[in-house]
C-alpha cells in the first residue's frame, strides 16, 4: 500500500455506526459485528461500495450498527432484498445477516433458493438455536429435547436442521462455520467468504446468554476442523455429517457459474422495464 492509500485506510472502528448496540451483555452478536468490521477494514473496501442487509431479530439489528449502507428489512426476507439489490447494483459488495429463525424458519425457502442461485453475496447466520428477540422459542436449529421454552415444555421432538449441510445440498459454493468466541478466526473466514465469487454461507455460532445460558459452555466444545477446505461436495457432506456441529473453519469452496440477471434465460424484464421508461 502506498503512503497516500495508507493515510485514508479505514479501521474497523470506521465501519461502526454511532449507534450503541442494545444486545444483552455477553451476546455473541457483538463479536459478529467486530468480525465484520475487521474483515471490511482488512479488505480495504470503501464504505459506499458495501451494503449490509438484514431481516428481523436481535441479530438482524446489526445492519444499524455498521457505517456501510444498510437495510433492516422484514422477518425472513433479507435474502430476497439482498438479491434484488445485487441484481440492480452488481458492483456492490453485498453482505446479508440474521438469525437462525430468520434465515431457516420463515426465510428458509429464500435460503435454499439463494444457495441454488449462487449470486455473489455473503450470508451470515448468527446461530443461537433460539428465537432471541421474541423471548426464547425453539428455532429450526434447536435440539429436540430442549425444554426451557413454555411453548415446548417437553422439547420440540423435531430433528434440527444442519445449516451447513442444507447449504451444501442447495448449492452454496462457499460454506464455513465460525464461533463468536474466536472473533479473529471469524473475521478471517469472512475475508475469504467476501472474496469468494458466488454465494458464501457462514454459520456463526453465536451464544444467547439470556435464553440459552448453557451456550456459554460452547467455548469448551468448539474446535477447528482438522481437514483442508474441500471442493468435493461428497467429501464435504461426509465431513459435515460426521461432525457434531461444533467444528469451525471453511468446509467447502467451489467455483460454479454466478447468477447475474440477464445472463441466464431471458426473463422478459428488459421489455417490461422499457415500457416503464419515460
Ligand atoms: C412476519 C413476522 N413473523 C414473526 C415476527 C416475530 N419475530 C420477530 S424476531 C423473530 C425471531 C427472531 O429469532 P432469530 O431470527 O433466530 O433471531 P435472534 O433474535 O435470535 O437473533 C420473530 C418470530 C415478525 N417480526 N414478523
Ligand atoms: S436475547 Fe439473546 S440473542 Fe437477543 S440480544 Fe439478548 S443475548 Fe443476544
What does this structure look like?
The protein contains ten helices and eight strands. It is of the alpha/beta class and 278 residues long. Helix 2 packs across helix 7 and helix 5 crosses helix 6. The longest helix has 15 residues. It binds thiamine diphosphate and iron/sulfur cluster. Thiamine diphosphate binds next to strand 3 and helix 4. The site of thiamine diphosphate (TPP) has 19 residues, from strand 3 and helix 4.
Feature tags:
278 residues; alpha/beta; Rossmann fold; eight-stranded mixed β-sheet; 10 helices; 8 strands; globular; binds thiamine diphosphate; binds iron/sulfur cluster
- The count of DSSP E runs of length 2 or more, i.e. the number of strands, is 8
CATH superfamily: Thiamin diphosphate (ThDP)-binding fold, Pyr/PP domains
CATH architecture: 3-Layer(aba) Sandwich
Based on secondary structure, the structural category is alpha/beta
SSE layout and pairing:
Layout lengths: L2 H6 L20 H15 L6 E5 L14 E4 L5 H11 L4 E7 H7 L1 H10 L3 E7 L35 H8 L3 E6 L3 H13 L3 E7 L12 H4 L1 E2 L8 H10 L4 E7 L15 H8 L2
Parallel strand pairs: 1-2, 1-3, 3-4, 4-6, 5-6, 7-8
Antiparallel strand pairs: 5-8
Helix pairs in contact: 2-7, 4-5, 5-6, 6-9
The chain binds thiamine diphosphate and iron/sulfur cluster.
The site of thiamine diphosphate (TPP) has 19 residues, from strand 3 and helix 4.
